[in-house]
Amino acid sequence: MLWQSVKEKLSQKIPKNAYSLWISPLKGHEEEGQGLVLTGPDSFFCNWVQDKYLTDIETALQELGKADMPVSFVEAAQTAPGHNEGQPQQMRLPTMPVVRQFTKALNPRYTFDEFMVGNCNMLAHSACDAIAHARPDLGNTIYINGGTGMGKSHLTHAVAHHIVNHAPSTRLHYLTAQQLTAEMVKDIKANTMANFKDKYQKQCDVLLIEDVHTLSGRTKTQSELAETLDILMECGKRVVFTSSKSPREIDNLDDGLRSRLAYGLITTINPPGLNTRVKIISRKAANCDLQLTENLIGYLAENIKGDIRQLESIVVGIKARAALLGAPPDFDMVKEVLTNIIGQQGQLSVEMIRDFIAAQYKVTINELQSKSRKRTVAFPRQVCMYLARKHTGYALADIGRALNRDHSTVVHAVRTISTKIARDGSTRGQIELLSDKLEKKFL
Protein backbone atom coordinates (compact mmCIF):
# COMPACT_ATOMS: atom_id res chain seq x y z
CA MET A 1 0.00 0.00 0.00
CA LEU A 2 1.36 3.41 -0.99
CA TRP A 3 0.70 5.19 2.32
CA GLN A 4 2.40 2.40 4.25
CA SER A 5 5.48 2.78 2.08
CA VAL A 6 5.43 6.55 2.64
CA LYS A 7 5.17 6.04 6.40
CA GLU A 8 8.19 3.74 6.38
CA LYS A 9 10.27 6.46 4.75
CA LEU A 10 8.92 9.14 7.08
CA SER A 11 9.80 7.05 10.13
CA GLN A 12 13.44 7.28 9.08
CA LYS A 13 13.38 11.10 8.82
CA ILE A 14 11.04 12.28 11.57
CA PRO A 15 11.88 11.93 15.31
CA LYS A 16 10.13 8.98 16.93
CA ASN A 17 8.04 11.12 19.28
CA ALA A 18 6.81 13.43 16.51
CA TYR A 19 6.17 10.47 14.20
CA SER A 20 4.01 8.74 16.82
CA LEU A 21 2.08 11.91 17.53
CA TRP A 22 1.46 13.24 14.01
CA ILE A 23 2.09 10.57 11.37
CA SER A 24 0.86 7.31 12.93
CA PRO A 25 -2.75 8.52 13.46
CA LEU A 26 -3.14 9.44 9.77
CA LYS A 27 -5.08 7.10 7.50
CA GLY A 28 -4.15 7.20 3.83
CA HIS A 29 -5.69 5.92 0.60
CA GLU A 30 -5.53 6.72 -3.09
CA GLU A 31 -8.49 8.21 -4.93
CA GLU A 32 -8.74 8.73 -8.64
CA GLY A 33 -8.39 12.39 -9.50
CA GLN A 34 -7.39 13.34 -5.93
CA GLY A 35 -4.13 11.45 -5.48
CA LEU A 36 -3.15 10.52 -1.93
CA VAL A 37 -5.88 11.44 0.56
CA LEU A 38 -4.82 11.57 4.22
CA THR A 39 -7.44 11.49 6.95
CA GLY A 40 -6.77 13.10 10.32
CA PRO A 41 -8.91 13.31 13.48
CA ASP A 42 -9.77 17.03 13.12
CA SER A 43 -8.97 20.23 11.23
CA PHE A 44 -6.28 21.36 13.70
CA PHE A 45 -4.46 18.06 13.31
CA CYS A 46 -4.67 18.16 9.50
CA ASN A 47 -3.51 21.78 9.29
CA TRP A 48 -0.55 21.12 11.56
CA VAL A 49 0.62 18.08 9.59
CA GLN A 50 0.15 19.96 6.33
CA ASP A 51 2.23 22.91 7.58
CA LYS A 52 5.01 20.87 9.18
CA TYR A 53 5.30 17.63 7.22
CA LEU A 54 3.80 18.05 3.73
CA THR A 55 7.25 18.62 2.25
CA ASP A 56 8.53 15.39 3.84
CA ILE A 57 5.50 13.49 2.53
CA GLU A 58 6.00 14.84 -1.00
CA THR A 59 9.70 13.94 -0.85
CA ALA A 60 8.81 10.39 0.16
CA LEU A 61 6.36 10.15 -2.73
CA GLN A 62 9.07 11.37 -5.09
CA GLU A 63 11.44 8.67 -3.83
CA LEU A 64 8.71 6.10 -4.53
CA GLY A 65 8.30 7.33 -8.09
CA LYS A 66 5.09 9.28 -7.39
CA ALA A 67 6.47 12.80 -7.72
CA ASP A 68 3.38 14.15 -9.51
CA MET A 69 0.83 12.69 -7.09
CA PRO A 70 -1.12 15.42 -5.23
CA VAL A 71 -1.67 15.14 -1.48
CA SER A 72 -4.83 16.30 0.27
CA PHE A 73 -6.06 16.25 3.87
CA VAL A 74 -9.57 15.64 5.17
CA GLU A 75 -11.12 15.41 8.63
CA ALA A 76 -12.27 12.03 9.91
CA ALA A 77 -15.75 13.46 10.50
CA GLN A 78 -16.10 14.19 6.80
CA THR A 79 -15.20 10.66 5.73
CA ALA A 80 -16.71 8.62 8.55
CA PRO A 81 -19.95 7.58 6.79
CA GLY A 82 -18.18 6.44 3.66
CA HIS A 83 -15.45 4.61 5.49
CA ASN A 84 -17.80 2.86 7.90
CA GLU A 85 -19.77 1.21 5.15
CA GLY A 86 -18.59 -2.30 4.49
CA GLN A 87 -15.64 -2.00 6.87
CA PRO A 88 -15.52 -4.26 9.92
CA GLN A 89 -15.25 -2.42 13.22
CA GLN A 90 -13.39 -3.77 16.24
CA MET A 91 -15.88 -5.18 18.71
CA ARG A 92 -15.95 -3.87 22.26
CA LEU A 93 -17.07 -5.76 25.34
CA PRO A 94 -20.30 -4.34 26.80
CA THR A 95 -18.59 -3.43 30.09
CA MET A 96 -15.61 -1.78 28.43
CA PRO A 97 -15.97 2.04 28.28
CA VAL A 98 -15.19 3.97 25.14
CA VAL A 99 -11.66 5.32 25.40
CA ARG A 100 -11.43 9.01 24.71
CA GLN A 101 -8.14 10.71 23.87
CA PHE A 102 -7.54 14.41 24.32
CA THR A 103 -4.67 15.20 21.94
CA LYS A 104 -6.63 18.12 20.50
CA ALA A 105 -6.24 20.05 23.77
CA LEU A 106 -2.51 19.38 24.05
CA ASN A 107 0.33 21.52 22.78
CA PRO A 108 2.37 19.33 20.39
CA ARG A 109 5.60 21.00 21.49
CA TYR A 110 5.11 20.24 25.18
CA THR A 111 6.85 16.87 25.37
CA PHE A 112 9.51 15.43 27.67
CA ASP A 113 12.06 15.69 24.86
CA GLU A 114 11.51 19.45 24.66
CA PHE A 115 11.65 20.04 28.43
CA MET A 116 14.98 21.40 29.64
CA VAL A 117 15.90 19.88 33.01
CA GLY A 118 17.87 21.83 35.62
CA ASN A 119 18.20 22.09 39.37
CA CYS A 120 15.11 24.31 39.39
CA ASN A 121 12.77 21.59 38.07
CA MET A 122 14.57 18.27 38.38
CA LEU A 123 12.27 16.76 41.00
CA ALA A 124 9.09 17.84 39.20
CA HIS A 125 10.39 16.36 35.94
CA SER A 126 11.35 13.06 37.60
CA ALA A 127 7.96 12.80 39.31
CA CYS A 128 6.04 13.46 36.10
CA ASP A 129 8.20 11.00 34.19
CA ALA A 130 7.38 8.37 36.81
CA ILE A 131 3.66 9.16 36.54
CA ALA A 132 3.78 8.94 32.74
CA HIS A 133 5.50 5.55 32.86
CA ALA A 134 3.20 4.30 35.67
CA ARG A 135 6.14 3.77 38.01
CA PRO A 136 5.38 3.94 41.75
CA ASP A 137 8.76 5.56 42.52
CA LEU A 138 7.35 8.82 43.88
CA GLY A 139 3.75 7.83 44.45
CA ASN A 140 0.64 8.21 42.30
CA THR A 141 -0.24 11.78 43.27
CA ILE A 142 1.84 14.86 42.45
CA TYR A 143 1.26 18.53 43.23
CA ILE A 144 3.42 20.92 41.16
CA ASN A 145 3.71 24.45 42.49
CA GLY A 146 5.34 27.28 40.54
CA GLY A 147 4.93 30.75 39.08
CA THR A 148 3.61 31.65 35.65
CA GLY A 149 5.70 30.38 32.76
CA MET A 150 7.83 28.02 34.86
CA GLY A 151 6.89 24.87 32.89
CA LYS A 152 4.00 23.37 34.89
CA SER A 153 1.76 23.05 31.81
CA HIS A 154 4.66 21.71 29.79
CA LEU A 155 5.10 18.81 32.21
CA THR A 156 1.39 17.97 32.44
CA HIS A 157 1.09 18.01 28.63
CA ALA A 158 4.20 15.83 28.43
CA VAL A 159 2.60 13.29 30.76
CA ALA A 160 -0.55 13.26 28.63
CA HIS A 161 1.40 12.95 25.36
CA HIS A 162 3.39 10.00 26.63
CA ILE A 163 0.33 8.16 27.93
CA VAL A 164 -1.71 8.79 24.75
CA ASN A 165 1.18 7.62 22.56
CA HIS A 166 2.30 4.60 24.57
CA ALA A 167 -0.85 3.47 26.39
CA PRO A 168 -3.79 4.64 24.23
CA SER A 169 -6.30 2.53 26.12
CA THR A 170 -5.68 4.60 29.26
CA ARG A 171 -8.68 6.73 30.22
CA LEU A 172 -7.09 10.13 30.68
CA HIS A 173 -8.77 13.43 31.56
CA TYR A 174 -6.82 16.67 31.24
CA LEU A 175 -8.43 20.02 32.10
CA THR A 176 -8.12 23.15 34.20
CA ALA A 177 -9.93 23.66 37.50
CA GLN A 178 -12.06 26.31 35.83
CA GLN A 179 -13.09 23.87 33.11
CA LEU A 180 -13.93 21.31 35.77
CA THR A 181 -16.15 23.87 37.51
CA ALA A 182 -17.87 24.88 34.26
CA GLU A 183 -18.54 21.24 33.37
CA MET A 184 -19.98 20.54 36.80
CA VAL A 185 -22.26 23.61 36.68
CA LYS A 186 -23.49 22.52 33.25
CA ASP A 187 -24.32 19.03 34.56
CA ILE A 188 -26.07 20.45 37.62
CA LYS A 189 -28.28 22.64 35.44
CA ALA A 190 -29.03 19.73 33.11
CA ASN A 191 -29.66 17.40 36.06
CA THR A 192 -26.98 15.02 34.74
CA MET A 193 -24.52 14.94 37.65
CA ALA A 194 -24.54 11.15 37.41
CA ASN A 195 -22.64 11.52 34.13
CA PHE A 196 -20.11 13.84 35.80
CA LYS A 197 -19.49 11.38 38.63
CA ASP A 198 -19.27 8.43 36.25
CA LYS A 199 -16.75 10.22 34.03
CA TYR A 200 -14.32 11.30 36.74
CA GLN A 201 -14.83 8.59 39.34
CA LYS A 202 -15.36 5.40 37.32
CA GLN A 203 -14.08 6.12 33.81
CA CYS A 204 -10.75 7.69 34.76
CA ASP A 205 -7.28 6.20 35.07
CA VAL A 206 -5.25 9.43 34.96
CA LEU A 207 -6.52 12.85 36.06
CA LEU A 208 -4.55 16.01 35.27
CA ILE A 209 -5.95 19.24 36.73
CA GLU A 210 -4.22 22.59 36.28
CA ASP A 211 -4.57 25.84 38.25
CA VAL A 212 -6.26 24.29 41.27
CA HIS A 213 -5.81 27.58 43.14
CA THR A 214 -8.77 28.90 41.10
CA LEU A 215 -11.02 26.60 43.14
CA SER A 216 -10.79 29.13 45.97
CA GLY A 217 -14.31 29.82 47.25
CA ARG A 218 -15.99 27.28 44.92
CA THR A 219 -17.54 25.15 47.66
CA LYS A 220 -19.55 22.75 45.48
CA THR A 221 -16.66 22.02 43.12
CA GLN A 222 -14.35 21.46 46.07
CA SER A 223 -16.79 18.96 47.55
CA GLU A 224 -17.18 17.00 44.31
CA LEU A 225 -13.43 16.99 43.66
CA ALA A 226 -12.69 15.76 47.20
CA GLU A 227 -15.15 12.90 46.70
CA THR A 228 -13.60 12.07 43.33
CA LEU A 229 -10.06 12.11 44.73
CA ASP A 230 -11.05 9.73 47.52
CA ILE A 231 -12.19 7.16 44.96
CA LEU A 232 -9.25 7.63 42.58
CA MET A 233 -6.62 7.51 45.32
CA GLU A 234 -8.13 4.42 46.92
CA CYS A 235 -7.94 2.68 43.53
CA GLY A 236 -4.33 3.75 42.97
CA LYS A 237 -5.14 5.98 40.00
CA ARG A 238 -2.63 8.60 38.89
CA VAL A 239 -3.36 12.27 39.66
CA VAL A 240 -1.37 15.42 38.83
CA PHE A 241 -2.22 18.92 40.08
CA THR A 242 -0.59 22.21 39.17
CA SER A 243 -0.96 25.56 40.87
CA SER A 244 0.75 28.89 41.42
CA LYS A 245 0.31 28.34 45.17
CA SER A 246 1.00 25.50 47.57
CA PRO A 247 -2.07 23.81 49.12
CA ARG A 248 -1.65 25.65 52.42
CA GLU A 249 -1.48 29.03 50.63
CA ILE A 250 -4.82 28.71 48.80
CA ASP A 251 -7.48 30.84 50.48
CA ASN A 252 -11.09 29.72 51.01
CA LEU A 253 -10.25 26.06 50.49
CA ASP A 254 -11.99 23.27 52.37
CA ASP A 255 -9.64 21.56 54.82
CA GLY A 256 -10.65 18.16 53.47
CA LEU A 257 -9.67 19.05 49.92
CA ARG A 258 -6.52 20.80 51.13
CA SER A 259 -5.50 17.58 52.86
CA ARG A 260 -6.14 15.53 49.72
CA LEU A 261 -4.16 17.95 47.53
CA ALA A 262 -1.23 17.57 49.91
CA TYR A 263 -1.60 13.79 50.06
CA GLY A 264 1.21 12.95 47.62
CA LEU A 265 4.45 14.54 46.55
CA ILE A 266 4.53 18.36 46.57
CA THR A 267 7.28 19.84 44.42
CA THR A 268 8.09 23.41 43.43
CA ILE A 269 9.44 24.60 40.09
CA ASN A 270 11.71 27.57 40.67
CA PRO A 271 12.88 30.12 38.07
CA PRO A 272 15.58 28.55 35.88
CA GLY A 273 19.21 29.28 36.66
CA LEU A 274 21.66 30.66 34.13
CA ASN A 275 22.78 27.28 32.76
CA THR A 276 19.18 26.11 32.34
CA ARG A 277 18.25 29.36 30.59
CA VAL A 278 21.15 28.84 28.20
CA LYS A 279 19.86 25.35 27.37
CA ILE A 280 16.30 26.63 26.89
CA ILE A 281 17.36 29.46 24.58
CA SER A 282 19.61 27.13 22.56
CA ARG A 283 16.80 24.61 22.09
CA LYS A 284 14.20 27.21 21.15
CA ALA A 285 16.61 28.84 18.71
CA ALA A 286 17.29 25.44 17.11
CA ASN A 287 13.54 24.80 16.84
CA CYS A 288 13.17 28.12 14.99
CA ASP A 289 16.20 27.37 12.79
CA LEU A 290 17.83 30.50 14.24
CA GLN A 291 21.61 30.73 14.41
CA LEU A 292 22.72 32.46 17.62
CA THR A 293 26.34 32.72 18.73
CA GLU A 294 27.35 31.60 22.22
CA ASN A 295 27.87 35.24 23.23
CA LEU A 296 24.36 36.20 22.14
CA ILE A 297 22.85 33.20 23.90
CA GLY A 298 24.80 34.10 27.03
CA TYR A 299 23.66 37.72 26.85
CA LEU A 300 20.01 36.66 26.54
CA ALA A 301 20.33 34.15 29.36
CA GLU A 302 21.81 36.78 31.65
CA ASN A 303 19.16 39.37 30.86
CA ILE A 304 15.96 37.28 30.75
CA LYS A 305 14.82 35.89 34.05
CA GLY A 306 11.57 34.38 35.27
CA ASP A 307 8.85 33.58 32.73
CA ILE A 308 10.13 30.99 30.26
CA ARG A 309 7.49 32.08 27.75
CA GLN A 310 9.41 35.35 27.40
CA LEU A 311 12.40 33.36 26.20
CA GLU A 312 10.39 31.89 23.35
CA SER A 313 8.80 35.24 22.52
CA ILE A 314 12.21 36.90 22.28
CA VAL A 315 13.71 34.09 20.17
CA VAL A 316 10.77 34.34 17.75
CA GLY A 317 11.15 38.13 17.70
CA ILE A 318 14.85 37.85 16.82
CA LYS A 319 14.03 35.33 14.09
CA ALA A 320 11.43 37.69 12.59
CA ARG A 321 13.76 40.68 12.83
CA ALA A 322 16.64 38.80 11.19
CA ALA A 323 14.36 37.62 8.36
CA LEU A 324 13.03 41.15 7.83
CA LEU A 325 16.49 42.69 7.62
CA GLY A 326 17.99 39.77 5.74
CA ALA A 327 20.93 39.72 8.15
CA PRO A 328 22.17 37.34 10.86
CA PRO A 329 21.43 38.35 14.46
CA ASP A 330 24.00 40.62 16.12
CA PHE A 331 24.21 42.28 19.51
CA ASP A 332 22.35 45.45 18.47
CA MET A 333 19.49 43.44 16.96
CA VAL A 334 19.19 41.19 20.01
CA LYS A 335 19.30 44.16 22.37
CA GLU A 336 16.59 45.98 20.38
CA VAL A 337 14.26 42.98 20.40
CA LEU A 338 14.93 42.39 24.09
CA THR A 339 14.09 46.00 24.93
CA ASN A 340 10.92 45.99 22.81
CA ILE A 341 9.55 42.88 24.52
CA ILE A 342 10.55 43.27 28.17
CA GLY A 343 11.64 46.91 28.29
CA GLN A 344 14.63 48.12 30.19
CA GLN A 345 15.35 45.97 33.21
CA GLY A 346 13.97 48.04 36.04
CA GLN A 347 15.91 51.28 36.45
CA LEU A 348 19.28 49.59 36.87
CA SER A 349 22.25 51.64 35.69
CA VAL A 350 26.04 51.45 35.93
CA GLU A 351 25.95 54.21 38.54
CA MET A 352 23.52 52.21 40.71
CA ILE A 353 25.78 49.15 40.52
CA ARG A 354 28.81 51.31 41.31
CA ASP A 355 27.14 52.77 44.40
CA PHE A 356 25.95 49.32 45.46
CA ILE A 357 29.44 47.81 45.19
CA ALA A 358 30.98 50.75 47.06
CA ALA A 359 28.60 50.13 49.95
CA GLN A 360 29.20 46.36 49.94
CA TYR A 361 33.00 46.65 49.99
CA LYS A 362 33.02 49.76 52.18
CA VAL A 363 34.97 51.94 49.77
CA THR A 364 34.05 55.38 48.48
CA ILE A 365 32.94 56.22 44.97
CA ASN A 366 35.95 58.52 44.67
CA GLU A 367 38.23 55.59 45.46
CA LEU A 368 36.56 53.45 42.77
CA GLN A 369 37.06 56.27 40.28
CA SER A 370 40.64 56.94 41.38
CA LYS A 371 43.85 55.56 39.87
CA SER A 372 44.52 53.47 42.97
CA ARG A 373 45.68 49.90 42.29
CA LYS A 374 45.34 48.69 45.86
CA ARG A 375 43.58 45.34 45.94
CA THR A 376 40.99 46.71 48.37
CA VAL A 377 39.99 49.15 45.62
CA ALA A 378 40.97 47.44 42.37
CA PHE A 379 39.05 44.22 43.07
CA PRO A 380 35.71 45.96 43.89
CA ARG A 381 36.21 48.11 40.79
CA GLN A 382 36.63 45.01 38.61
CA VAL A 383 33.60 43.39 40.25
CA CYS A 384 31.58 46.52 39.49
CA MET A 385 32.56 46.39 35.82
CA TYR A 386 31.77 42.68 35.62
CA LEU A 387 28.32 43.07 37.19
CA ALA A 388 27.55 46.12 35.04
CA ARG A 389 28.38 44.11 31.96
CA LYS A 390 26.27 41.20 33.19
CA HIS A 391 23.19 43.06 34.37
CA THR A 392 22.92 45.97 31.92
CA GLY A 393 23.04 46.48 28.21
CA TYR A 394 25.39 49.44 28.48
CA ALA A 395 28.35 49.68 26.10
CA LEU A 396 31.84 49.05 27.43
CA ALA A 397 32.72 52.71 27.05
CA ASP A 398 29.69 53.75 29.13
CA ILE A 399 30.63 51.32 31.89
CA GLY A 400 34.19 52.61 31.89
CA ARG A 401 33.06 56.23 31.95
CA ALA A 402 31.22 55.72 35.26
CA LEU A 403 34.55 54.65 36.80
CA ASN A 404 36.90 56.98 34.89
CA ARG A 405 38.25 54.15 32.76
CA ASP A 406 38.29 53.31 29.06
CA HIS A 407 36.62 50.34 27.40
CA SER A 408 39.82 48.24 27.27
CA THR A 409 40.06 48.38 31.06
CA VAL A 410 36.49 47.11 31.27
CA VAL A 411 37.31 44.22 28.93
CA HIS A 412 40.30 43.33 31.10
CA ALA A 413 38.22 43.53 34.29
CA VAL A 414 35.45 41.29 32.90
CA ARG A 415 38.01 38.76 31.72
CA THR A 416 39.84 38.80 35.04
CA ILE A 417 36.71 38.26 37.14
CA SER A 418 35.43 35.55 34.77
CA THR A 419 38.72 33.68 35.16
CA LYS A 420 38.63 33.98 38.95
CA ILE A 421 35.03 32.73 39.03
CA ALA A 422 36.06 29.64 37.07
CA ARG A 423 39.10 28.91 39.25
CA ASP A 424 38.28 30.26 42.70
CA GLY A 425 35.24 29.09 44.64
CA SER A 426 35.50 32.03 47.04
CA THR A 427 35.29 34.58 44.24
CA ARG A 428 32.49 32.66 42.60
CA GLY A 429 30.55 32.67 45.86
CA GLN A 430 31.05 36.43 46.27
CA ILE A 431 29.83 37.20 42.76
CA GLU A 432 26.79 34.95 43.08
CA LEU A 433 25.88 36.55 46.42
CA LEU A 434 26.30 40.08 45.05
CA SER A 435 24.30 39.24 41.92
CA ASP A 436 21.50 37.82 44.03
CA LYS A 437 21.42 40.90 46.27
CA LEU A 438 21.50 43.18 43.24
CA GLU A 439 18.60 41.39 41.57
CA LYS A 440 16.50 41.39 44.73
CA LYS A 441 17.14 45.06 45.37
CA PHE A 442 16.72 46.55 41.91
CA LEU A 443 15.20 44.04 39.46
What does this 3D model show about the protein?
- The structure is a single chain.
- The chain is α/β, with parallel strands linked by helices and 443 residues long.
- It has four domains: 2-84, GMP Synthetase, Chain A, domain 3 (2-Layer Sandwich); 103-269, Rossmann fold (3-Layer(aba) Sandwich), CATH 3.40.50; 274-342, Helicase, Ruva Protein, domain 3; 350-442, DnaA protein, C-terminal DNA-binding domain (Chromosomal Replication Initiator Protein Dnaa, Chain: A, Orthogonal Bundle).
- It is built from 20 helices and eight strands.
- The protein has a five-stranded parallel beta sheet with strand order 5-6-7-4-8, with helices on both faces. It has a three-stranded mixed beta sheet with strand order 1-2-3.
- Helix 5 packs parallel to helix 6 and helix 11 (274-287) packs across helix 13 (308-325).
- The longest helix has 21 residues, at 43-63.
- The radius of gyration is 28 Å and the shape is flat.
- The model is unreliable at 80-99 (pLDDT under 50).
* Oligomer kind: single chain
CATH H level of the largest domain: which superfamily? P-loop containing nucleotide triphosphate hydrolases
CATH architectural grouping of the largest domain: 3-Layer(aba) Sandwich
- Structural class, by secondary structure, is alpha/beta
| Number of separate structural domains | 4
Instruction: Name the overall outline.
Output: flat
CATH class of the largest domain: Alpha Beta
Radius of gyration: 28 Å
What portion of the residues fall into strands of 2 or more residues?
A: 5-15%
What's the layout of helices and strands?
Elements: H1 2-13, H2 16-23, E1 27-31, E2 35-40, H3 43-63, E3 71-75, H4 76-84, H5 122-132, E4 141-146, H6 152-166, E5 172-176, H7 177-189, H8 193-202, E6 206-210, H9 219-234, E7 238-243, H10 255-261, E8 265-269, H11 274-287, H12 294-303, H13 308-325, H14 331-342, H15 350-361, H16 365-369, H17 375-391, H18 396-401, H19 407-423, H20 425-442
Parallel strand pairs: 2-3, 4-7, 4-8, 5-6, 6-7
Antiparallel strand pairs: 1-2
Helix pairs in contact: 1-3, 5-6, 7-8, 8-9, 11-12, 11-13, 13-14, 15-17, 17-19, 19-20
